[in-house]
Specification:
single chain, six-stranded mixed beta sheet, four-stranded mixed beta sheet, 24% strand
């Protein structure tokens, strides 16, 4: 499978990072554990925000609930304190509790190894309901799968029907995990905003790709999703020096990116945004009573707003482009965007796609040389 830019489709105007993924933010890695059997299409995806222990050195963070039809955990404390102290885990709806327990176990173990006393931990766990393709009631994701995902975390991770996106459905097509990034300069320094989505939302007829109403064509080719429901988890990472209030302003713009793909955040969709910055770390052990924190000048946030919107839009399209056609446990088929539309591009489009693929390969090679 190929990412959306490989087809000559370029969302937005800003430049992506070297990998065009959330992991273009230094220190961020992503890992998956996938369960893909006749009965189960599900998994776990973890976003590790830093290379060290986030419980010891907390990250400035924020959450925004655009539409709250969801069962996430950990967002209340994040909203109150403005910090993230664990890795972020995404899974299916009925496995949130088991994944929460697994994160507690793993963070407790890490803190014990480092001599840190733990009396409370606030795991952040998001979810989408994959019950259309997955026998969700059996709740098969737990500690072993979370350990695997963390162990496999890396910068250049898989997208599509993998991890927490194995059984998700987006605009009536096969959804999944997608990611993108944008880079820009402020004050002579380059900054990054990256997004990762677990896409499971949208009505087929409303799907838009760079302004083209593709869904109207696709609903004639497949069993359409009639309602905008099912949820999307969006995680935004940045290295911009932001306060948690500013960060919340940035992650709200994820809704703009979703709208550009045709979502209206329907009644039955949990549209939840989580964000963190690696720039302002907080250590209760080392920090003085009065903290000095660098934050961006408010009027310069426009660039970050645009970056977040574009990265989320492209992340959704990557989740669709990279997902493969999947047959669920009840025999229901969800076709991939590639099979139904992308593979039918015109000759001119394919020529542009080949050039985009060559450009991406050169960018990947350049990124590898710096790692």
């Amino acid at each position: 499978m190929k990412r959306i830019r490989a087809y000559g489709i370029i969302p937005g105007e800003m430049e992506p990072g070297p990998l065009n993924k959330i992991t273009d933010v230094a220190g961020v890695t992503v890992g998956h554990a996938t369960v893909n059997t006749a009965e189960h299409k599900t998994g776990i995806t973890v976003i590790l925000p830093c290379e060290d222990n986030p419980y010891k050195n907390k990250l400035t963070a924020a959450a925004y609930i655009h539409n709250g039809f969801g069962k996430s955990q950990g967002l209340v404390q994040m909203e109150e304190l403005g910090t993230l102290e664990t890795f972020i885990a995404l899974t299916n709806t009925l496995n949130v509790g088991k994944v929460h327990d697994a994160v507690v176990d793993m963070m407790s173990e890490q803190c014990e190894r480092e001599g840190i006393q733990v009396t409370t931990i606030n795991p952040v766990v998001g979810e989408c309901n994959d019950s259309g393709l997955n026998l969700i009631k059996e709740r098969i994701i737990g500690l072993e799968e979370v350990r695997t995902a963390v162990r496999e975390a890396k910068r250049d991770f898989e997208e599509g029907a993998v991890g927490a996106g194995t059984g998700t459905v987006c605009f009536g097509l096969k959804g999944g995990i997608g990611s993108a990034s944008r880079q820009f300069s402020l004050g002579g320094k380059t900054y990054t905003v990256g997004a990762l989505v677990q896409s499971n939302f949208g009505s087929t007829k409303n799907l838009m790709i760079c302004g083209e109403m593709v869904g109207r064509e696709l609903e004639k080719k497949t069993k359409p999703a009639l309602l905008d429901r099912g949820s999307i988890m969006t995680v935004i990472a940045t290295d911009l020096p932001l306060s948690d209030r500013q960060l919340k302003r940035v992650i709200k713009r994820a809704g703009v990116g979703l709208s550009r793909t045709g979502s209206y955040m329907g009644h039955g969709s949990g549209d939840i945004m989580i964000g963190f910055t690696t720039a302002n770390r907080i250590s209760e052990e080392r920090d003085p009573e009065i903290l000095t924190i660098r934050i961006l000048k408010e009027s310069l946030l426009d660039t970050a707003f645009t970056a977040a919107a574009e990265a989320v839009e492209e992340a959704v399209l990557n989740s669709l482009a990279m997902a493969s056609t999947t047959v669920g446990y009840q025999g229901e088929i969800r076709y991939s965007l590639t099979d139904l539309w992308l593979s039918g591009l015109s000759t001119a489009d394919q020529a542009a796609a080949d050039q985009a693929a060559a450009d991406q390969a050169a960018a990947d090679q350049a990124a590898d040389s710096t790692n």
